[in-house]
């Protein structure tokens, strides 16, 4: 069988790999049942759905004709580095790294840093738009996680909240 869309084929395989990893990871937790879900229920269902989606996409890549075979292009290293880096910066700023003397800066500062850092991955950086987006994300995250879900997250830097 010939691959008729390389992009769909490889993306389908990545979906399947993530799905299998989620489902396999979920088996280490109590699954429960639909009425009384355990901590492993959602990752298991998500893993199964991702795997099925990957199977469908991979099958389609082998069946549906494309004009040029949709080859996979070069890896966009700059956006990849900024997006991965933004997530690392978020984690470090949210919780801090006491071993290296980096204090927790809190949710609001971490979301602003994440948004501004990730915006550098694009072709055009618009300060006003990024600032508005960061503000909306920070307010929404505070409302969702701190107010509604009552999670105990550091909201502001430790030196401001003491």
Automatic annotation (TrEMBL):
<feature type="transmembrane region" description="Helical">
    <location>
        <begin position="44"/>
        <end position="63"/>
    </location>
</feature>
<feature type="transmembrane region" description="Helical">
    <location>
        <begin position="100"/>
        <end position="120"/>
    </location>
</feature>
<dbReference type="InterPro" id="IPR009936">
    <property type="entry name" value="DUF1468"/>
</dbReference>
<feature type="transmembrane region" description="Helical">
    <location>
        <begin position="75"/>
        <end position="94"/>
    </location>
</feature>
<feature type="domain" description="DUF1468">
    <location>
        <begin position="10"/>
        <end position="154"/>
    </location>
</feature>
<keyword id="KW-0472">Membrane</keyword>
<feature type="transmembrane region" description="Helical">
    <location>
        <begin position="12"/>
        <end position="32"/>
    </location>
</feature>
<keyword id="KW-0812">Transmembrane</keyword>
<protein>
    <submittedName>
        <fullName>Tripartite tricarboxylate transporter TctB family protein</fullName>
    </submittedName>
</protein>
<keyword id="KW-1133">Transmembrane helix</keyword>
<dbReference type="Pfam" id="PF07331">
    <property type="entry name" value="TctB"/>
</dbReference>
<feature type="transmembrane region" description="Helical">
    <location>
        <begin position="132"/>
        <end position="153"/>
    </location>
</feature>
């Amino acid at each position: 069988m010939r691959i008729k869309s390389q992009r769909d084929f490889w993306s389908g395989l990545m979906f399947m790999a993530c799905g299998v990893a989620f489902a396999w990871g979920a088996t280490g937790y109590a699954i429960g049942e639909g009425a009384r879900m355990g901590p492993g229920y959602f990752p298991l269902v998500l893993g199964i759905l991702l795997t099925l989606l990957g199977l469908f996409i991979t099958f389609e890549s082998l069946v549906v004709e494309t004009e040029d075979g949709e080859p996979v292009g070069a890896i966009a290293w700059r956006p990849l580095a900024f997006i991965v880096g933004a997530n690392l910066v978020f984690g470090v700023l949210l919780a801090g790294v006491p071993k290296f003397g980096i204090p927790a800066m809190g949710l609001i500062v971490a979301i602003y840093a994440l948004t501004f850092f990730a915006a550098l991955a694009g072709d055009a950086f618009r300060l006003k738009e990024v600032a508005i987006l960061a503000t909306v994300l920070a307010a929404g995250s505070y409302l969702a996680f701190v107010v509604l879900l009552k999670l105990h997250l550091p909201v502001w830097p430790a030196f401001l909240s003491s």
